[in-house]
Specification:
Strand order of the largest sheet of chain A: 1-2
CATH architecture of the largest domain in chain B: 3-Layer(aba) Sandwich
Strand content of chain B: 25-35%
Strand order of the largest sheet of chain B: 6-7-8-3-9-10
Structural class of chain A: mainly alpha
Number of helices of chain B: 9
Strand content of chain A: under 5%
Order of helices and strands of chain A: HHHHHEEHHHHHH
Oligomer: heterodimer
Largest sheet of chain B: 6 strands, mixed
Helix content of chain A: over 70%
Shape of chain A: globular
CATH class of the largest domain in chain B: Alpha Beta
Distance between the termini of chain A: 39 Å
Largest interface: A-B, 29 and 36 residues
Structural class of chain B: alpha/beta
Radius of gyration of chain B: 18 Å
Largest sheet of chain A: 2 strands, antiparallel
Number of domains of chain A: 1
Chain lengths: 288, 244
């Protein structure tokens, strides 16, 4: 049971990450490969505030959102100078830079030693130390992020995001300064990733830079491509599938060590098959 | 009365002068045809006016003596200008209805975030789609339309902007006769509504039928201008099209 709860918490965290990245990549068409950086900023900001300043989790979470949003604003402004493949490469570069900061700014992040002893949330005397309560909290955050994302994509703003993805220059002719829209969604998506990061830090109680490496960005990207770009339910479906995949492999009798290695191979094979036969993903509304 | 003028407009592409000191006057409420051989600078002229291409020299003057040497594409709507493209540029993986709704809803980021399209937007969009016989396709993705329907949707999107100046870049290219008739009727209706249309077109019979005035460009320069029946008889114009 504890293990199922653990998987469900991971699903909530990756659900938040994939929903937020889908707003940036699936809806707006910005090929960002830097989501793990904002996930990491959220995790480190919350961890440092919790451990070094003894701040309440919810205040630390709020601060993490603000810090991530400010960094996203700066990075988004620079990324706005790029299009398509160049955008992807530049965002790739930012993930490497931020990872290097996590690794090398030892005075702040303790570098490869990581930050241990991160506390669990407490709200009005209610301690979320038990995994079940933490799961409920994670699911509440997942629901908040889901409904916020749904509010965004169903608004006129959401329609503009899709039009940017389809033909940004043609859209400008109709009076839209697309830079503001791209910046806004990049900041919103990155702030949401910080929520996932804060939850992750508090749940695992220890973070180090390895959780926020480039492969993590690619993993989140794989989730939304698998589930379906430009579809919120697809993000959740993709997260569920890729979180459960190791368990499926174990269920079919693969030894643990082999299952771990096979997982990467299977991600790759799934992505190749999807690009060949179903480029919109399982339930996606946008073909790459 | 002129609604738009270009003054000594210049555009170079890698040293090649695509538009070379072009000065033209566009009369308000009229249809002005822009003709010339391929590569003569017609589309570049429209791109300069609509801010899609940066102006290297000269400027555009709008009604009220508003001089523009730098034009951003997202500003032209506020100047009352809209356009279509030579290669149809729709929002392909969006519905036909959404392609029109985007011209009707809030432009401001925060305003758009808290806006849902309402009955007013919907009825305006459907009204526009009825004008181009695409109402029955409103829930289909734009990518699934035929070429003719795609052209019509692009024109519908421009009409929906309620702009004063409409730049149409080869709206008849590649269309079947029955669609050509629909597009011609739409353009005539724009004239009845006192809109100013700048029309790039190669079909001289359509130019004669629709245009009040034509401008002939060749190698980025003004070759001739005047009423269609006069200009199309000029020797230099015939030579520019057919060669010596």
């Amino acid at each position: 049971m504890e293990y199922l709860i653990h998987l469900a918490i991971l699903f909530s965290i990756y659900g938040i990450l994939s929903l937020s990245l889908n707003l940036i990549v699936g809806y707006t068409g910005l090929p960002s490969v830097t989501h793990a950086a904002f996930y990491g900023i959220g995790a480190y900001a919350a961890a440092i505030l919790l451990v070094s300043y003894g701040m309440n989790f919810f205040l630390a979470l709020f601060a993490a959102i603000i810090i991530s949003a400010l960094v996203a604003l700066l990075i988004g402004l620079i990324l706005s100078k790029f299009d398509d493949d160049y955008y992807a490469l530049a965002s790739f570069g930012f993930n490497i830079i931020i990872f290097s900061i996590f690794l090398n700014w030892q005075g702040l992040t303790r570098g490869p030693l990581g930050i241990p002893g991160i506390s669990k949330p407490v709200l009005f005397g209610l301690d979320f130390s038990s995994n079940l309560l933490f799961l409920i909290l994670s699911l509440i955050f997942l629901a908040i992020i889901y409904f916020t994302a749904r509010f965004i994509v169903n608004s006129s703003f959401g329609r503009v995001l899709k039009a940017i993805r389809e033909d940004e220059t043609a859209l400008q002719v109709f009076g839209y300064n697309t830079l503001y829209y791209k910046l806004a969604i990049f900041v919103i998506g990155s702030a949401m990733a910080a929520v996932a990061g804060s939850l992750f830090a508090s749940y695992i109680t220890f973070i180090d830079p390895s959780s926020f490496w480039l492969m993590e960005s690619i993993f989140i990207l794989a989730i939304i491509i698998l589930g379906g770009l430009s579809n919120l339910k697809g993000s959740l479906l993709g997260a569920l599938f890729l979180i459960l995949l190791p368990e499926i492999l174990r269920f079919i009798g693969l030894p643990n060590e082999l299952a771990a290695q096979m997982r990467q191979v299977i991600y790759g094979i799934i992505l190749i098959l999807l690009m060949l036969y179903r480029p919109q993903g399982l339930v996606g509304e946008y073909k790459l | 009365m002129f609604i738009l003028q270009t003054k000594n407009l210049i555009k170079n592409f890698d040293g090649v002068k695509a538009v070379d000191g072009l000065s033209v006057d566009i009369e308000k409420g009229k249809i002005t045809g822009v003709i010339g051989p391929n590569g003569s600078g017609k589309t570049t002229l429209i791109n300069l006016i609509s801010g899609m291409t940066r102006i290297d020299g000269g400027f555009v003057v709008l009604e009220g003596n508003l001089r523009l040497a730098k034009i951003k594409p997202y500003d032209i709507a506020s100047y009352g200008i809209t356009r279509t493209f030579q290669d149809v540029r729709l929002f392909n993986q969006m519905t036909v209805l959404d392609n029109i709704l985007i011209t009707l809803t809030e432009r401001n980021v925060f305003g758009a975030l808290f806006e849902r399209h309402n009955q007013y937007h919907l009825s305006k969009a459907e009204e526009t789609l009825e004008k181009v016989n695409l109402w029955h396709k409103r829930n289909e993705l734009a990518i699934n339309l035929s070429y003719g329907q795609r052209k019509l949707l692009e024109i519908a999107r421009a009409i929906s902007m309620k702009a004063e100046i409409i730049l149409l870049d080869e709206p008849f290219a590649g269309l079947f006769p029955e669609i050509i008739k629909i597009v011609a009727e739409i353009i005539k209706k724009l004239k009845e509504e006192k809109k100013t249309v700048i029309l790039i077109e190669h079909d001289m019979s359509l130019i004669r039928e629709l245009c009040d005035y034509i401008i002939v460009v060749d190698s980025g320069k003004l070759l001739a201008e005047g009423k269609p029946e006069e200009v199309l008889e000029k020797r230099e114009v015939i030579e520019a099209y057919l060669g010596d």
